[in-house]
Write a structure and sequence with these properties.
By secondary structure, the protein is of the alpha/beta class. The chain is globular, with a radius of gyration of 19 Å.
């Protein structure tokens, strides 16, 4: 990424390109497949991985205005936006899904947002589902006393973010046959696929159910680039019950991967990506002689 980081202060300077390291994993080696780890978790100490790539262009576009964004109770995106606001001296507002949460103690993720200066607004789930409708959005901004704010969508996925994430594909260009990333809202996958070489393909592992991500990624690429870019697909079988669901079997898998490779495995996204890659490997999805790059988009919190 060459711009917009040039317009951001030293506190947001990234480490780019992020390191690309081989992981010697017997499960992949016995099938003749190389596994690479793209360490986007090392880009920035507080705006980790794809959050930096997607937020940086939006923060530059905000031009000092209050930033309003959206997320659930365990949203990595909300935390990253709040941290960016603190580092930049920007006011931030987080619209949180679930009015019932307003009457409960804050979980560690939302507490970190508040500690970083973010104002939280809790809304009922029906209203949250309609947040993109102009009239509903206008009401939410008025209620937050932020009518002139710069609005970043849930997960940070908009055309600016997709174009920012395209640099990830550029960094992996020619390095692997398959570049895989966990997907929440699809912006990183949309950009990743656009940056890869024509012979490469991108794989998105959905971290929540619903089967909507393929259509969302297509729309994001249309909005960002005017049409489809690259070869990609979404795999939606490995979400383990939905967003923020980490059953014991997934936690045990993540701990085993940590022991094998000394990599702290973030559970909501990265663990599901790695689980999916091992499952696809067992299904013969990656031919012998191929190379798979897994994008490590975050690290465990807290």
């Amino acid at each position: 990424m060459t711009s917009p980081d040039a317009s951001l202060p030293d506190t947001l300077r990234p480490r780019l390109p992020s390191p690309l390291r081989e992981a010697h994993d017997v499960r992949f080696a016995r099938r003749g497949v190389r596994l690479l780890l793209k360490r986007d978790d090392l880009i920035h100490p507080e705006l980790v991985g794809n959050k930096w790539r997607k937020l940086a262009p939006n923060l530059a576009a905000a031009g000092g205005r209050t930033v309003v964004t959206f997320g659930g109770a365990y949203s990595n995106h909300l935390r990253a936006t709040a941290a960016a606001g603190r580092l930049l001296g920007l006011a931030t507002v987080g619209v949180v899904r679930g009015q019932e949460l307003a009457h409960r103690p804050l979980n560690p993720s939302l507490a970190r947002c508040v500690a970083d200066g973010m104002r939280l607004r809790f809304v009922d789930r029906a209203t949250y589902r309609r947040k993109a409708e102009p009239a509903v959005l206008a009401d939410l901004l008025r209620a937050a006393d932020a009518e002139h704010a710069y609005v970043v969508p849930e997960g940070g996925s908009n055309p600016a973010a997709v174009r920012g994430a395209r640099a990830l594909g550029g960094e992996l260009r020619g390095a692997a046959d398959v570049a895989a990333v966990a997907c929440g809202t699809g912006g990183t996958l949309a950009g990743l696929a656009a940056g890869l070489a024509p012979a490469q393909r991108a794989l998105g592992v959905a971290v929540l159910g619903g089967g909507f991500l393929t259509a969302d990624v297509r729309e994001l690429q249309r909005a960002a680039f005017g049409g489809p870019r690259g070869r990609w697909r979404v795999e939606d079988r490995f979400h383990h019950g939905g967003y923020a669901r980490v059953p014991p079997v997934l936690d045990a898998f993540a701990r085993d991967f940590e022991d094998r490779h000394g990599l702290p495995v973030e559970r909501l996204y990265v663990a599901k990506l790695l689980w999916g890659l091992v499952a696809l490997l067992d299904e013969g999805a990656f031919p012998a002689g191929s190379t798979v790059a897994a994008v490590v988009t975050g690290r465990p919190f807290p």
